[in-house]
Amino acid sequence: MAEASQLIQHIESFVNLSSSPTHQSQLQAASLDVIASLLKKNVLTIETLVREMGMYLTTTDDVIRARGILLLGELLTHLASKPLDDATIHSMLAFFTDRLADWKALRGALVGCLALLRRKSSGGVITTNDAKAVAQSYIQNLQVQSLAQHDRKLCFELLECLLQRYPDAVVSLGEDLLYAICEAIDGEKDPHCLMLTFHIVEVAAELFSDDLLANFASDLFEILGCYFPIHFTHSKAEDFDVKRDDLSRALMFPNLSLSHIMQAAFSSTSLFEPFAIPLLLEKLSSSLQSAKVDSLKYLSHCTVKYGADRIEKHAKAMWSSIKDAVYSSHEPTLSFASESLDGVGFRENVILTESLNLLDTVFKQNSGLFLSWIIGDEDINLIFKSISSYKTYKEISLQSKQKLHAVGSILSVSAKASPAACNSVMESFFPCLMHALGLSVGNSTQDCFPNDGNVLRGKLNHGALYLCIELMTACRELMASSEEFKSVAAPANERWYCLLQSYSASLAKALRSTLETSANEDSYETNVYFGVKGLLILGTFRGGSLIISNSIFENILLTFTSIIISEFENTLLWKLALKALVHIGSFIDRFNESEKALSYMDVVIEKIVSLASSHDFSMPFPLKLEAISEIGATGRNYLLKIVQGLEEAVCANLYEVLVHGNPKSAEVVVQLLECYSNKVLPRIHEIGGFEEVLLRFAVNIWNLIEKSVTFSSQGLLDATMKAMKLAVGSCSVESQNIVFQKAFTVLSLGTYFPLEDAASNIPILLNEFQLTQETSISSSREAWICSLFASVIIAARPQTHIPNVRLVIRLFMTTLLKGNVPAAQALGSMVNKLGLKSNGTEVHGNCTLEEAMDIIFDSKLWSFNDSVTLRSNGGLENGSSIGLTDICRGATNIRSLQVHAIAGLAWIGKGLLMRGHEKVKDITMTFIECLLSNSKLGSFSLEQDYSENSSESVVKYAADAFKILMGDSEDCLSRKLHATIRPLYKQRFYSTIMPILQSLIIKSNSSFSRSILCRACAHIISDTPLIVVLNDAKTVIPILMDGLSILSNDVSDKDIVYSLLLVLSGILTDKNGKTIGQEAVIECAHIIIDHSIILISYPHMMLVRETAIQCLVAMSGLPHARIYPMRRQVLQAVSRALDDPKRAVRQEAVRCRQAWSQSLSMKGESGDCFNHVSQ
Amino acid sequence: MVSGLINANPVVYEKKERRARSASSCVNDEYAAEQIDQQEVFDHVRDIKDPEHPYSLEELKVITEDAIEVDDERSYVRVTFTPTVEHCSMATVIGLCLRVKLMRSLPPRFKVDIMVAPGTHATEAAVNKQLNDKERVAAALENPNLVDMVDECLAPTFD
User: Fold this and answer.
1) Is residue B53 situated within a structural domain?
2) For the domain that residue B123 is a member of, what is the CATH number?
3) Residue A211: phi, psi to the nearest 5?
4) Between chains, do A1142 and B44 touch, taking CB under 8 Å as contact?
5) In chain B, whose CA is at the least distance from the CA of A1103?
6) In which domain of life is the source organism classified (chain A) (predicted)?
7) Disulfide engineering: A800 pairs with which of A257, A736, A1053, B105, CB 3.0-4.6 Å?
8) Does the pTM exceed 0.90?
9) Taking the CA of residue A5 as centre, how many other CA atoms within 13 Å lie in the half-sphere pointing to its CB?
10) Tell me: the pLDDT tens digits for A429-460?
11) Distance from CA of A190 to the nearest CA of B (A)
């Protein structure tokens, strides 16, 4: 009984409408859920529920009755998947059907009917009779258009559901239902409902027989037609989640969008044809762009749906409309200056593409009819007559140009449609074009060698040439698209094919002759463009040498190649020719045209490759390289050839440099290497499988190094190292092993390196003389070998076996003290990739990470003789040996040694940091110790200028070590070079190190040590992902500001100032972390604005000034009270920036000034008005 | 107040495409100065909205790039604008918009002259005098209605 009373309570709370709306809807939803769950769990049966609810369902109080029925309806919606027995369903449905007549409590009845009609077939089904009863009641009782929007929507859903799920039941109702549909949808305005109505029309049209429908077609279409074209005037209105496109689709494809549903409704039955096509054609002349586009889309869709017979009546009208649309939508001029061969001149034009689409559709449906119109068209024939009167493209009047292009696109669409159409089009137009061009049917064998150029001396007619190229393009596409031509079995009996073939030779010759124009000629651009494009099309016909004989093809290639080699001063021609060659190359590669591939290899590739090694310096070298790399990218075989050619050229030139000391070759080889590593290697990587080539390249360079005598500039070394790294990096483990063997042999042959010393554990004696002399190391042989060896190690895969790891480590340890950065990077890379002991696998030459770490950190590798004084505070005696960290801490008083040691340690630390090794903590502590110890020293030796300066710079280096630790480097430890990268390592480092540095900053008492600590922080902050920094914006911003003011004093720090400023602007403009970032920003607004103002006049970098102003713009959005005091200051500073030497800064300043003065006037304005009124 | 629009149906011209600056040597040189030139001043004023139509001054050809004269060294700018119709009472408002916009966008060292193109306006001299008299401009900017109007016209230039 308790349950029953509870139930009553829930029902009461749902039905009751007295409490406040928001609270109430929650309550109602809750009670609905409770009752539904009771029903689901079978605690309550529907019968008992109905019995309990009896009063609510039958009372004469409209409101309560409506709520009661709604409750029942909603409950049934919740029980959609619960099986119910047929009797219950039947009686419930009968109830709701009956209730449809009760307009005061309609919603519940609609919801209930919908819920029952939509039930899954598993749990009790509705019989046809029941459904029919619903429909009948619907027809009798519902006045849909007099209802509110939500109820209308429910009505339409009900109707849709009936039509879709119970077709048998509703079809028998016949005309009555159709009449009811017309009545219901007439005058509907809500987009959501419209979606449904369009769909209802579509479904109904499919459902009912044509005879029945015929009576209603005109009425239905009248209702539908007035929505076309769909055009929202209030597109920004808040609740329009139905987009225009949706609406307009609703009238073709169901469930997509309105426009498409409308399209579907339009085309749902061919009975609409007499109404729809005239309407659409009429709307085509509308001035509204979207109406035009829609009409065109609908027309092509309807054309397919209605079928050829029905469309035939309208074909003539359609043809003239299409013609008009094409004529008027073409751009009047082509621009030839753009160096693209595909879509020259025509901007994207929706109307044009849609009209051509439509033309394509109708043409395919009824090609005979359209063909006769096209061929007989007066306009087209007029154009053909008139083109011969113009010599050059420029002479043609704008209007005729527009028509010319329209004719071109119409002809190309029709020729593309089918081989038969192509035959007719070509037959009727091509010969007369050839005539206009002054070409005759040529004997192809003779014409390959044009000795008698007398016909062609005169310039070609551009109009004819344009149309001719359009036609040829269409033929080419037809050939490529139709399946039958894929086999080599020729379309030899097709007439278009014969036509083209017979003219091909003379055409090619004529086109070649247009290319022989000079740049100062009037129609140079047009000539060049048409010439190249025409030849390109001739060169890319499918099907071997069927249309274009091999000799013509080779001639075309030869023409382009000779342009590449000799016409480099003629920029446009050169670029277009190169593009054409690339097109042809990739065409051959894509379609496996074996015969053409041979010619291409012989004619183009051989010549181009020889460019690299030729000693002809008349052609600019960068152009040569561009041609080589572009053409090499077209196909695998070509790339192979090109890579070999490049490699030979590199080796030959390197030989010149290294053995004969030829400085001129050095420049060449640097460019070659850059091309190799920047353009060719990425392409190789893409294609894959060039392993031997890369391996051979690396080994060859080592061979050269072995023979070398002289070593030249740093630039050459850098380029070589880069190429070496990339080449070795993309090798497999086995190939890398081979390279290592070779490299190590060369290394051990080097005389300078005391391998024996290193092998024994005797500390290496360093003396000052040796160290200072080695500062100019880049040109020495040792440095070359060592750096190259380092770059090989940097590129090694983790599994690669490095011979003699211990030895190599010692070697690098010593060289890094001489300031050799690659050595340090190699060490970092090694500790990053060495295997751990616990893995048990024998990797990297039996040396595990632990051993390597031992050598690096714990062994005392070096000793000093007396000439070097050791610092007393290092606690070391003369002659005793020291390790790397000792030097970092300043165990010697040789400054350069300490600096190099710090840089080296930083790279090693980076390697460890990236793999997440804990030893990195010790390294950072060493750096921090450095920072602190030296600042202490700095503070008490202020009088001694020399010592102050030196220690200051050492400290700076220690601070900059954090940049190495955190920064991403292209040279080393990148993903490409197989580094082990632990996810989120930067975040981890940031969160461990920042608290330490922050507390040190707070504790620091001298301004110098504070500045150094800020510097270190700046490096860390600027390289950490923004999200992490945002999280503790509060603590970071003050440090950031300090960093900015400290770093902005020195020109050399401008990059770090910029990256810090970027972090700041990131914090200011961040949208997601608003709550966290914003608070901190508001708190520090004063400092941020002050510092930004100072940076506005930062003289050394434009980007800094620009970003500073952007920060100020972002600040202007803060609460008024907070920024108001700074307003005057900011406006002054910004108005100074209006006179900045750089334009970008001035532009930002204008924006900033506006933002700030607006924030002033917004609040000030009301005050002004007030004053005004009071006066 | 005049009822109805002064020029109810103005001719609208196409906007010129924003010319990309040709990469000059200045780009790489951090310290080289880029002078304020015709195009830059034109960029400041081209998007000002006409007071009575939703078109920009550029679209109505009220101002063109050639009608702007700039001498950066002597800190001088002269803008000559062409009202759409001869008796256009909006000419002073347009002129005021131009002046305010340039006042806010150019460094204070510049002297700005705003002129109606000779022969394009019925009361040319009066308009010119009014626009170049700083007392009268200042007074006009005290009028909150005018300031609102000017701000509305200038709004599109800051996007």
Assistant:
1) yes
2) 3.30.300.130
3) -60, -45
4) no
5) B30
6) Eukaryota
7) A736
8) no
9) 2
10) 888 778 777 776 654 444 443 444 444 445 66
11) 30
